[in-house]
Each structure stands twice: as C-alpha cells, then as structure tokens.
C-alpha cells in the first residue's frame, strides 16, 4: 500500500520562553532584569528553505566575525597607532562577541560592550583630529551584527533596552571622557543601532508569523481530515440506514402476512409472528430515530437519496456512463457472479464508482481496466488506468476519495490499496469479505491522517495521476 504520512509530521517549536525559563511567573521588572543579564542558550535558527542553505546565516555570521576581527586590528594599528598585543586581543574579543551571538545573544552583547569599552580606553590618548571616539569606524559596524542577532531572538522590550543602554553608554562616555579634537560618534551610533534594532524586530516578527502560519495550516489540515472522515461516515450511515430500514420493513410485512398463508394457524404461531412484527417495527422506529437525523433537512438535497442503493448488478450502467464521458473502459468479471450481502454490494459499487470518477478527473485519455473477481469467501476489485494522454484540469474537490474508499472497505473488515503503477498510471485494488461476520469495532481512527483522501467530488493530497 502507499506510504501513509502523518499530517502532524511538521511542528513549529515555540519561539517564546518555555515554562522552564527563569522569567516565567516573575514580575515585569524582575523578568526584564533576568532577560538583560541571562546567559541562557538561544541558538540562531536555521533557514527553512531551501534546505541546502539552512546553515547560510551561521556561515555569514562566522565570516563577519573574522572580517571585523581583522578590520579592528588594522584600524587600531594603522589609524590609531596602537602597537603590540592589545590590538590583537581586542580584535579577538570583538570577533568572539559576534560569533557568540549565534548561541548566547545577551552574553555576546555584554561581551561586545566590554570589547568596545576596552578599545575606547586603549585609543583615548592616541585619537587625532577628525577621528571618532569612543567608537572606531569599524567598531561601530562590528557591534551592529551583535545587536541584530539579539533583536532577532529576544522580545521587543528587551531589544529596546539593549539598544537604549548601548546608545546611553556611548553618550555618557562622550560627555565624560571626550578627547580634545575628536569627533563624536553618538549620533551615528543612535541611527545605526536604532535601525538595526528595528530590522531585527521586523525579521523576528516575520519569523514568528510564518511559524504561526505553518502551525495553523497543520491544525487546519487535521481539522479538515477529521471533518472529511465524519462526512464520509455520515454518508455511509445514511446508506446503511436505507438498507437496514428496507429489510426491517420487509420482515415486518412478512410477519404480518404469514398467518394468512397458513390454514387455521395456531394462536401460538399468531402470537410469535405478532411479536416478530412488533419487534421489527420497534427496531425500525429506533433506527429511524437514531440515524434519521443524519439525513439532510432539505428534501431535494442529493445527499439524502430516497431511491434504493446501487449494487454490482448496475456496474454495466456505471461503466457505460463513464464511456459516454470519453474514457476507454474495459471490464472483466471472474468467478460465479452472484448476489452478495447488501453492504458488500454497496461498498463494492461505491469503490468502483469513486475510482472511475478519479480516472475521469485525473487521467484524461487513459485506458481503464475494471476487474471483479468472485472468490469462495472474498470479492476482489481492481481499477487500473494507464498514463494520461493529456494534462488533467485543476480540480475543485474537497479531496478525500481514498479515505472514503478505505473507510468503506475497513467497515466490512476488508482492505484497500492504492498507488502509482510502473507504467505511469494508477491502480486501486480492494478485497472485501463475502460475509462480513465480525467487522472491526472502529476503523479509520487515525482521523484521516493519510495523504490520499477524497469523496466523489475531490482529489487526494497524494501525488497521483488517477484514483
């Protein structure tokens, strides 16, 4: 049988703090303080699509760490004339802060501030006219990726505080320790850090919205599958109501007529037949009370047919109708053709009907073979089509035909398999017991989590050319 796929296969991990986080249940001020001084691990998410570029953000951050590390060394030595080992150590600290931001953003932010403060102290006495302080030209841009990675993964209120503290420390350093002749960098820091914070907030909001959309689509698919299953079961129940009600009515009439077919029937016989008729009428009343509510309230609704349910005796008429629609169909019947139980007849007819409908819908111009084999204890059905000769038009159906066929077969204790054939076509085969004595207590309890679904008016979510 074709592979079954669970609609719950894809889940979106929660983007907000989990119940195990230390900020859970804390007051707003304490929660903010914990967020600003946390060392919690928060890895940078991978790209969802395409998969081969999943690690691209991590590669870009690693490249930025190396680039700004070399840039910091070059500017400290060549422009600010700081020699020796301190420029190398400061450059290493700057690169480490950018790299650490991929895993622990808040800790990386504090490390970046520490590196920036050390560099500002290191160049304080060597700043020349026209040179910026406390940020170097490369240092202010090296700090921007850290802020961006922080804003991507923390709540907006934390981003505001992170950007605000960074700008405030820059302004406080300029007011207190500004070297003579140097240019201030607070205005540039305010504009750059504010823009990076807004960009990170927007990207974070977009990521969360996409995650919620995927989760909502998953829930919608689950609900659609459940609704599909319930609709198909309701349809089957209505059809079974017709079959059982018909036979109960016949039993009641036969029990009423039987005494008149016997000369001088005994009182005991009349009493037993009357009891049979009374029980049949009572069962029929209960059946109509329980299952009658499944019928449509609209008398003209085609979902509530009032005519006898079809059987395999009407298979030739069904095939003729499909031929009239332009499909090349051949039939083959093996074994001794004989009447079967009403439920088996109806299920077999509906399976063939749905398979032929899907051939018309998904495999225009194909050749279809319908096989029915009467075995000693089982009925075998097979509907196979060749590859379509022209593209299939788009379908507007609900898409639960395979689910309906499996539900019908499982209701009788049978099996149904469907899948593509090697020649590019599609094949549906079913095995139904002739006399279903002990059908399963519950079939299809997976609430339709299979990928192929449909009624007579829809296509499945399986990739298929036909049924």
pLDDT averaged over residues? 79
Beta-strand content bin: 5-15%
Output the radius of gyration: 37 Å
CA(first)-CA(last) distance: 14 Å
Shape: elongated
Can you tell me about this structure?
The protein is α/β, with parallel strands linked by helices. Helix content is 52%, strand content 9%. The protein has eleven helices and seven strands. It has a five-stranded mixed sheet, covered by helices on one side. Strands 1-2 form a two-stranded parallel sheet. A hairpin with a 3-residue loop joins strand 4 and strand 5 (378-385). Helix 4 (105-123) packs antiparallel against helix 5 (137-151). The longest helix has 72 residues, at 186-257.
Brief rundown of the structure:
It is built from eleven helices and seven strands. It has 467 residues and is an alpha/beta fold.
